[in-house]
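Key idea: predict the complex, not the pieces.
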Amino acid sequence: MIITLKKNAPERDVKRLMQRFEKQGLQVTAIYGEEFNVFGLVGDTSRLDERTIMANPIVHNVQRVAEPYKLANRMFHPEDSVIDVSGIPVGGKKVVMMAGPCSVEGRKQICRIAKEVKDAGADLLRGGAYKPRTSPYSFQGLGSDGISYLAQARKETGLPVVTELMSAEHLDEFIDQVDLIQIGARNMQNFDLLKAVGRTRKPVLLKRGMSATIKEWIMSAEYIMSEGNPNVIFCERGIRTFETYTRNTLDLSVVPIIKERTHLPIIIDPSHAAGDWKLVESLSLAAIAAGADGLIIEVHDDPENAWSDGQQSLKPERYAQLVNKAKAIAQVVGRSL
Amino acid sequence: MIITLKKNAPERDVKRLMQRFEKQGLQVTAIYGEEFNVFGLVGDTSRLDERTIMANPIVHNVQRVAEPYKLANRMFHPEDSVIDVSGIPVGGKKVVMMAGPCSVEGRKQICRIAKEVKDAGADLLRGGAYKPRTSPYSFQGLGSDGISYLAQARKETGLPVVTELMSAEHLDEFIDQVDLIQIGARNMQNFDLLKAVGRTRKPVLLKRGMSATIKEWIMSAEYIMSEGNPNVIFCERGIRTFETYTRNTLDLSVVPIIKERTHLPIIIDPSHAAGDWKLVESLSLAAIAAGADGLIIEVHDDPENAWSDGQQSLKPERYAQLVNKAKAIAQVVGRSL
Amino acid sequence: MIITLKKNAPERDVKRLMQRFEKQGLQVTAIYGEEFNVFGLVGDTSRLDERTIMANPIVHNVQRVAEPYKLANRMFHPEDSVIDVSGIPVGGKKVVMMAGPCSVEGRKQICRIAKEVKDAGADLLRGGAYKPRTSPYSFQGLGSDGISYLAQARKETGLPVVTELMSAEHLDEFIDQVDLIQIGARNMQNFDLLKAVGRTRKPVLLKRGMSATIKEWIMSAEYIMSEGNPNVIFCERGIRTFETYTRNTLDLSVVPIIKERTHLPIIIDPSHAAGDWKLVESLSLAAIAAGADGLIIEVHDDPENAWSDGQQSLKPERYAQLVNKAKAIAQVVGRSL
Amino acid sequence: MIITLKKNAPERDVKRLMQRFEKQGLQVTAIYGEEFNVFGLVGDTSRLDERTIMANPIVHNVQRVAEPYKLANRMFHPEDSVIDVSGIPVGGKKVVMMAGPCSVEGRKQICRIAKEVKDAGADLLRGGAYKPRTSPYSFQGLGSDGISYLAQARKETGLPVVTELMSAEHLDEFIDQVDLIQIGARNMQNFDLLKAVGRTRKPVLLKRGMSATIKEWIMSAEYIMSEGNPNVIFCERGIRTFETYTRNTLDLSVVPIIKERTHLPIIIDPSHAAGDWKLVESLSLAAIAAGADGLIIEVHDDPENAWSDGQQSLKPERYAQLVNKAKAIAQVVGRSL
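Result:
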């Protein structure tokens, strides 16, 4: 940790501050500059709070040198982690394809679409049972019934299922019936929920919050991992910007960054990012070219009558076309699909 | 609701779409333009999903005319709502002052600071017991003990207390011992938590999410109100932007906007917005001049040793000065304090 | 144009407003709703100013149905425009590769790098002579000398050159010696400069402003085109967001959007977007997979001693590797390179 | 400047880098940490380019300790600068009021409004003659005629005038006839224009760019000052965010920040920030309470027929009310008006 002090700081105050650090077992080295004096602290600084050190009137600036994440950090875990989702490896050579409707609308619907996406090449089935909706007057999902319909679709197709958990209250149901637990963008910093899934061993799909920095996102993975669950998969779904032609702005630079800084897999959700099915194919191919470990895409066989998000859903035949093109791109970047 | 169709839409498809709306009891009026045709739907359109209508390939655009909030909407409730927080009216003539440390650090600390802020002119005591922290390795709050220390401070000073609820699991404890339940920025769209506090009658302080639009924020209030709890107070605490000299960007335009569009009170948190105590006084006076119903400010008697957020905490004597200036500003805008 | 009036608007005021529109030759149709009345205006509304109509106290909202761009709009020009840059077609089947150093640092340097990027597969040479720098104390570019060194490099390699014009004052020099005039992000809404290049027939590379919406960006192209110059190429270089691990956030959704809404080519600048050479290859391949018409990439043979932006520059050998992979991706999406 | 090196950096490379700095006359001090090694450079580092040092593969991070601005920096110029605008001091005890229409629409109009705002208490007259408009089809301002009408209004009322300069081409006209030259938000980083006004001694009103950080904004002032013109006044006019209920988000924290870091005056433009006259009074009072040195407000006597921006213009009688309230707020914060 590097602490910059104001040049006119009274010597006695400087001494007192440095002694405080030394008492905590840190080694302090000073650099005297023309406009500022700089102190480097060597040792375990993880217990120090930058914002409290900044409260000291003689302090000009505080900077951490090391990243605050340990378990997710590639520095301490150089090999890629491959997460096993009920037999499907995520983060290995194969690019993993997750697909399905925004909402589970009924048993028949989800089983029918499950077969369609499986035929088109999907590896996992997605479908919302508990739905985070901006309005209390919008369809809130089929809840527990939706979960059992998903389980039925898994039974019929063999596809593992991924769906969103909104409250720790439903965790048991998810442990029993869901293969990959999604933590949605709005709950990325619902720390109690992160800790709850961290106490299981279930794979977790951690979506990036709408305005989360990459560092905060990794710290949320660290919450899950620090409770004992190492099975975290990142999912980028677009961030909030000023642009209005898209629902969110997909940030593909996260793919090489997450791979450089962590050892965990990362997949891309182009459907929620774009909010428009016409953009989904372009962004999907781009994601794989950038090195993503998978895609999660909304597919519906009757988007015009979908119970939610019809605008961003692909029809199964278009999804099949996308999978074919994605295969060719995957091959170019040394992956299979 | 206004739906714009592409000019080249096949007549049969247009008819079919319009019939679907008419079957739902809506009245349809058409305007034929040069580049687009426009259809206005009159009736209860709240069940329609814009994003599903957009899935129709002949649709160019969909626009809601009425705002999606009803219970919070001033249009249907023209008088100001004044929320009673254990005897303190929020939203009336008096500007309400909430103050206290970022974290409850112990019984003595919170009782001592409670007396100091009361002497300086505070009406409510704030203090975090359950703390949302970016890092799992940071101090997570004293939890249940912190809540009982707050209750002790209330007993000693008579100040009602406000503190953050992070999980519905602790709701009973809050109903018993807390006067104003804070929903933090990171949980503004934790809809299960909103519904849980909506099922009580406890006053709720609803902080704006870091990247929430004003409309989304009001919709979160609507969640609480639609479960039966009308006692919602908005709290602006800065939004996330590209600027790095401040922790967040305080958006004071929300004050007149919330007052025009809703009937609920709004208070301002300059401490979290700025992230720097040196900016707090300026922003506090600005907030009152803009018409805010109150302020929530971090005050600590030893910021350099605070367990969190020392940088943005005022010392009690500075807080007392701020209260005095705030009084004079309040008077100019027809308020008391 | 669709105008929503408040329900309680006095009838006389409504009539007066409608008569004003009718006097301007517009046809007015009314839809009477429960909470609002809606008026559709048919005819040439391009002379109307939305923000002035909004000044009328009875008006609730104003919405344009048609996009404000005409010359750039694909609706009126369905075929792709292919821009000829001194013999290199941009926007055709071939993906165009532009490469070179951030700054022209001398005659030898630019000629040497020109040969290297040509050997690696580049079609055009980039290099800054007039440099927009945040600080007046930073290197401001070699100016006119830099332009003549670029011309020398073109002579030696045959590569057409692209470089930034910062002031209309230097336009003559650019017309003589430059093949593709770049308008930088900071000048995207320097309307006098746009008009100046619009009065020439030189191809223009129009970078997106750091916080420009796609609509504003297209309107800046419209400025150039409305002065008589149809040769505009869009260039996305990342937008400003809250993220700090990258210099800017590259927005690849612009590729399908620009292609849907306009008939003009679009290329991607991954170097300025990422600000880090380690991200450039991933983002380059992603851009081509998304359908971009070209790439502009910073290449320097001694980045550690570059006069500017060394951090984001690729070495020539890495650039050559990137071009090879890009070729394979281009083929998958039906392009050549 | 502080440079963090990767722990595994080969010693020879570290030595070579340090020697390079020492050759440039800098003194190097090392701190050896557990995960990184840190080097502090003491001396004149202003010639170093951070982004080029970052190009070195052994470098982990580079951080400047001192701010990059010198002439604007309060550290080297502790007293407030008061700028004389044709006899009106800006930055002194009196809060300065600038007002007038968005566009100069004719001689009579500007002279009439000039008298109205003067009667209401304005100190300077604003009015756009050269107008930056998003669309080439919108009214572009009366240009040179507009400037002469402003001069006429000044003659009739004695109010100095402020208006926007969009191109150095018109600088002579502005030097002759304008008292305060406005550099608009879109030209905040039009460095050639900044240098041009920097070579005069005319006071300059420097608007903040729509997505400019405060540091970049101060650096643009530094451009003007480094050419010899110390007469710079900052003007905040809102920044671009995701919020859509306002045109821009007014950032009032800039007031105490600019005053802490620079010695220059800062005024606020609530009209462009809000984009809605109904918000202007609240934000104006807030700005003065926050410590602003002045306000620039759009006033029009017939907003519903204004040639531009009617929605955000106050009528003269409302402006007069605002001035009265502003006076009382100014007094509370120790200012006059």
